[in-house]
Design goal:
The protein has 897 residues and is mainly beta. It is 6% helix and 55% strand. It contains nine helices and 51 strands. A hairpin with a 5-residue loop joins strand 49 and strand 50. The longest helix has 14 residues. It is globular, with a radius of gyration of 28 Å.
Length: 897
């Protein structure tokens, strides 16, 4: 049902449909209909063989299905592609969300549908989240590795292009398939709510009509319901500062050479998540092909992703210097304990409409035109309720008490705490209201896109000299608005009036990882807000003008491009070389303090622009006997994401008195990369071998620097502990890699057996400036990281399938190696690494009658978790997030019309 090939494709090449690719010549004038996984492999191989730019692909099977939960999970089967979960450790991250290509962060790889860019429902990424796009949309998923002049150059690693289905894919006039699956996630119902069944259902139909069957329509709908729960631990905090060194004087420091060299756990967070994800989508495509020379289509799509998440939390904080510190143990005399709840539903909506036309005027002259608009919305509500053992009235900070100091032990980098007074820690009356927060985050994004391409003697069947020339315009209008309200008890008397946790708790009290003897006190959200409303006079609001003003922004980005490309094709050799001029104008609206240190804000506008000449060339030589080699060179860029552009600033005040400042950087330069590619491919009838090597030399690498900041006064309060995160340009970066793929869909000794295997080896790094504090502590002015952000050191995939009679069995193995998740600006001790993760999925299909199949599937058979570690030797746990096993059983119906 799925294949991965080192494919090559043209942006104007027609989609290869399942019925086309599933037909083989029997040698006697008859057709053999190939089905299942074998059909998908042959479809992708055919797409590769007819193409003109370097890419890898996965393809649907003969009944239009991808076996994975969504497009992003299917993408991880592609050679050179790895996938990543959510970047926010305070949210559920049990699913993959985005794809990296050849080790380059998802932020710098464009996502398109039929070559059209999508509006982003997030402010920290360009393009759609792949996990919200439906598999029913897909004819083929392409990971484009080496772009030519026709492509948007925002492709440091490449581009993910979704080729949509067409009514003209197959041989028949009608096509219909419906899949209905029920499932069970073995983490569901482990906390408060019975999450119920998992559901995946979709239907796709296509029809050709009209007197000469020149009109076509394709429609698809899909719905998913995915409940889950997870008990996680975050001892390292999101920036790695949850582990700290201490100086001889007892002060915290990020630098080991200013301490005894022993890390101590100072911010210990236990999380318990309950999630309900629902996805709803619909697609409609109208097509007209009056003759072989003309092709017109109108496409519309709507994609909704809703994630309703409740997060319960235990937070343990110490004060002062630890005592009796060894490599595996220590103690704090005083501490603070908090129990909290965050209810954070998020809804993302994306719309796309596009019109495309293609006409062959004869004599090799072909005109392609595209006009599209996509819109995206993001709506998030965060209700945060926190109770504390020693809250300070009138503020959202807390003090410390001897009863909640703790001793700790460290085993395999995982701390375990013993609270001094366990009875008090488990008593609901020990906790009083710290704050009630209500935060709304809204994003609206619109992308308008137009492109025209004129080809002269430029199709794959043409020989001799040819050319492509064209122009493209992309206009992106993205705005972000935050509304932040925080309520705290105004006085000590108000704290008493507001009450303790008693009376607003569920009866369930699950255990935690970090504090095994302290149980979760699970807050009943409606009951808590009811108490708040009944005692509203006991609360006051804090000053959140900074978060309500400084975090808002609007980016208006207009990119205009023209390009020209020359081609030459002979029977055994072809070459294409071109250049693209790409100019970007940017208008940024934000709010800034009326003067330094002020709490009042005024609107500000900043404009900037940049332009690049971007050459590219790609040559192919046919060696004979199904073998060919390719060599290419190109220059691409990686534009900053929208929030990095904006000169916005957000502030966060921890209950331990730590001030966290996140700032944008409007002076960021786009990444620039020279890309060098060399590949060898051998088509062997029932299989294919491909070997590809690449090198990328990158300037102005963008990374987010997290550094210890200076003493800062904010809203009249002076903070000694300050962390500042801001995107910066690095001096340079580099990455090289080797990709090997082997496909064999039919083995002579056992005709029903086939497999697909690929492995990618990656080696990258970038040079990062070290903070002034780091230099003062003895570190060099720059340091070289052990990889690029989100770049694994290897990726491996193996899929084995066996088909006999009405039964097909499939087992897939995917392993993604260690990847640098973030790099600290002060010290490598706080660099975060996603640990290697492997996942095994199995599937069985059986035809129970003509057109009807019974399908069973198990995802994540071994229940592999997500694990992030930190430290130069990755000796300390930063984050542990378990992932459940999901069982699916369903039916697939494809009538033989």
């Amino acid at each position: 049902m799925l294949t991965s090939t080192a494919a090559l494709a043209q942006s104007y090449a027609p989609a290869v449909g399942p019925d086309q690719s599933a037909v083989a010549d029997a040698g006697d004038g008859q057709d053999i209909v190939v089905t299942g996984f074998r059909a998908s492999q042959r479809s992708a191989t055919r797409a590769k063989r007819d193409s003109a730019v370097i890419l890898d692909a996965v393809s649907q099977d003969d009944v239009g299905r991808l076996p994975d939960l969504n497009i992003v999970e299917a993408s991880r089967r592609i050679t050179g592609v790895s996938v990543v979960g959510g970047a926010d450790p305070t949210k559920n991250r049990d699913i993959y969300q985005r794809a990296t290509i050849r080790g380059l962060d998802p932020k710098y790889n464009l996502v398109t549908i039929d070559g059209i860019p999508l509006a982003s429902p997030d402010w920290v990424f360009r393009g759609a989240r792949l996990d919200m796009l439906p598999s029913s949309l897909v004819s083929r998923i392409e990971a484009i590795k080496s772009v030519t002049a026709q492509y948007d150059p925002h492709a440091l690693g490449g581009q993910i292009n979704i080729v949509s289905k067409s009514a003209f894919d197959g041989r028949g006039d009608r096509f219909f398939v419906m899949n209905a699956n029920g499932g069970y996630n073995d983490t569901t119902g482990k906390l408060i709510r019975d999450g119920g069944a998992s559901i995946r259902t979709d239907a796709t139909g296509a029809l050709r009509f009209g007197a000469d069957r020149t009109f076509g329509v394709v429609a698809s709908v899909e719905y998913q319901r995915l409940p889950s729960s997870a008990r996680a631990e975050l001892p390292g905090d999101s920036n790695g500062a949850g582990w700290s060194y201490f100086t001889a004087a007892g002060a915290r420091t990020p630098f080991p050479n200013r301490s005894n060299g022993l890390l101590v756990p100072v911010r210990n967070q236990d999380y318990f998540f309950e999630n309900m994800r629902t996805r709803l989508s619909g697609n409609l495509k109208l097509e007209w092909k009056p003759d072989a020379a003309t092709d017109v289509s109108l496409f519309g799509g709507y994609y909704r992703d809703k994630d309703t998440e409740t997060r319960y939390e235990i937070l343990t904080l110490p004060t002062g210097a630890p005592t009796a510190v060894t490599a595996t143990s220590g103690a704090f005399a005083q501490g603070d304990l908090q129990q909290g709840l965050t209810y954070q539903p998020v809804q993302r909506d994306t719309w796309l409409i596009d019109a495309k036309g293609r006409h062959d005027f004869g004599d090799g002259v072909v005109l392609d035109t595209t006009l599209a608009r996509s819109k995206a919305q993001y709506r998030e509500l965060r209700e945060m309720i926190k109770y504390d053992t020693n809250p300070r009235a009138g503020t959202s900070s807390a003090g410390f008490l001897p009863a909640f100091g703790y001793g700790y032990t460290i085993t395999n980098g995982r701390p375990r705490l013993t609270i001094n007074n366990i009875t008090a820690a488990n008593d609901p009356d020990s906790y009083r209201a710290l704050y009630y927060r209500s935060i709304n985050r809204d994003l609206d994004s619109t992308v308008d896109f137009g492109k025209v391409n004129l080809g002269i003697n430029a199709t794959t069947d043409d020989r001799g000299f040819g050319a492509n020339m064209g122009a493209a315009v992309t206009r992106t209008d993205l705005s972000y608005d935050q509304r932040y309200t925080e309520y705290v008890p105004a006085t000590v008397a108000g704290q008493t009036t507001a009450g303790t946790l008693r009376g607003i708790l569920y009866d369930t009290n699950p255990t935690a990882y970090l504090t095994p003897a302290v149980r979760y006190l699970l807050i009943d959200r409606p009951a808590a807000w009811q108490r708040f409303d009944a005692n509203r006079g006991a609360f006051t609001t804090t000053d959140q003008r900074a978060n309500n003003a400084a975090d808002d922004f609007r980016d208006l980005e207009t990119t205009k491009a023209v390009y020209a490309q020359a081609l030459f094709r002979a029977d055994r050799f072809d070459v294409q070389a071109g250049v693209r001029y790409d100019a970007t104008n940017l208008v940024i609206d934000t709010n800034a303090p009326v003067r330094a240190g002020a709490s009042d804000y005024r609107s500000t506008r900043r404009t900037t622009d940049y332009a690049y000449w971007l050459p590219s060339a790609l040559a192919t030589y046919q060696l004979g006997d199904g073998m060919r080699v390719r060599a290419g060179v190109s220059k691409t860029i990686g534009r900053p994401d929208y929030s990095q552009y904006a000169a916005r600033t957000s502030f966060g005040i921890g209950t331990d008195g730590t001030l966290t400042i996140n700032t944008g950087n409007p002076d960021l330069k786009p990444r620039e990369a020279w890309n060098y590619d060399l590949s060898y491919e051998w088509y062997m009838g029932a299989g294919m071998l491909s070997v590809a090597g690449f090198v990328k030399d990158i300037r102005n690498e963008i990374f987010t620097s997290s550094q210890q900041g200076p003493v800062t006064t904010f809203q009249g309060v002076t903070y000694q502990s300050v962390f500042v995160s801001t995107p910066r340009n690095a001096a340079g970066a580099k990455i090289k890699g080797l990709e090997i793929g082997y496909t064999l869909d039919r083995i002579a000794a056992l005709p029903g057996l086939g497999f697909n295997a690929n492995v990618t080896l990656l080696d990258g790094s970038y040079r990062q400036p070290v903070s002034a504090a780091g230099v003062a502590a003895g570190l060099p002015a720059t340091r070289e990281t052990s990889g690029l952000i989100q770049q694994p050191d290897y990726i491996a995939n193996l899929t084995v399938f066996y088909a006999t009679g009405p039964v097909e069995l499939r087992a897939s193995y995917n392993r993604i190696g260690r990847a640098l998740q973030s790099a600290d600006g002060d010290t490598p001790t706080r660099d975060l690494y996603q640990e290697p993760r492997q996942q095994i999925d199995v599937q069985a299909r059986m035809a129970v009658r003509e057109g009807v199949e019974l399908v069973g599937q198990v995802q994540n058979l071994t229940k592999a978790p997500f694990v992030v570690r930190q430290g130069t030797g990755r000796d300390y746990l930063n984050y542990y997030f378990p992932v459940g096993r999901t069982f699916w059983l369903g039916l697939s119906w494809k009538p033989n019309w």
